[in-house]
């Protein structure tokens, strides 16, 4: 009998391994396509919101999703090494004007941030398919509590950013001046 169980689990194990390898392949291929990934996540989020709106339920699932997303956002906006808490040999934020510039390293990288958000929306959507997760609650109280929690958390994060003088966003390459073309000159025509 044990031989039958082992033989039956081999195809399942092979299928799982093949699926995992294919999933990792496509996930790795999506890495450089930031805009496309986020548009896909926005589409998943819209589908989830429409599902909750039309079902008129699953507010506790949405609240849990909101708290989880807030936690991910804080990790995304936070530096890897917090100067208040840790002393490390890793790149740290400069605390004085004379300190050497060190690049901002996130606690939660963008790709993992995107992947976690997408996975969270998919799990929340699957939870809306089961009525046991539709706990009756008065949703306006949950919404008000989440908004208060969001503003208090963001206020604390912004104060931390100002105190340690870091900006967690990279807006792209800085341009210092317009490059003059070889045909243009500063001479005026008479």
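^ structure tokens above, recovered residues below v
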């Amino acid at each position: 009998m044990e031989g039958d169980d082992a033989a039956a689990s081999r195809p399942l194990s092979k299928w799982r391994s093949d699926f995992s390898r294919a999933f990792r392949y496509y996930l790795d291929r999506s890495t450089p396509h930031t805009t496309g990934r986020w548009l896909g996540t926005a589409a998943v989020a819209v589908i989830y919101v429409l599902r909750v709106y039309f079902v008129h339920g699953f507010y506790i699932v949405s609240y849990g999703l909101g708290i989880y997303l807030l936690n991910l956002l804080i990790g995304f906006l936070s530096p890897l090494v917090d100067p208040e808490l840790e002393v490390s040999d890793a790149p740290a934020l400069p605390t004085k004007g004379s300190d050497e510039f060190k690049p901002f390293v996130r606690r939660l990288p963008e790709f993992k941030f995107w992947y976690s958000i997408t996975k969270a929306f998919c799990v929340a959507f699957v939870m809306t398919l089961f009525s046991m997760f539709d706990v009756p609650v008065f949703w306006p109280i949950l919404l008000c509590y989440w908004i208060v929690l969001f503003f208090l958390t963001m206020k604390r994060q912004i104060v931390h950013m100002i105190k340690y003088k870091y900006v967690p966003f990279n807006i792209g390459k800085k341009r210092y001046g317009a490059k003059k073309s070889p045909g243009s000159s500063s001479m005026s025509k008479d």
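The mean pLDDT is 83.
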